[in-house]
User: Fold this.
Amino acid sequence: MPRSGSDGWPATPLTTDRAAAEHEAYAVLDGHHAGEPGPVYCLTARYRTAVFALGTPPRRIVKRHADEAAYQGEVLAYELLVGECALPDLHRVCDASRTLSSTTSARPSRSPAPMRSTSWPPPAGIRCGSLPSLL
Assistant:
């Protein structure tokens, strides 16, 4: 797997051309995420990450990392925050392609653990899963 260079940039950066990124995404999905809904729409294409919406309307979000450490860090964040209602549900990960697939639909609200703070419940209109993903 490519590692970051000494300057912090990925050894093998991703394309920043959205059309090229979509083309690459189809190949990655065919090889590593078979059965995901299509079509693919590139939301962002950057040297370090690319983010794609899958399906019409979008049913999944796929994020591709150029850097293995960044990918592993995001996977760890999802694993640590399972059940905390902080991130969308993780659908699938692939170490070989450094991709994560998450759902786009909001999860049902969960009862929070008892808290001492007076900040719960959140203001009206805000519920678990209603905030946009950072993917």
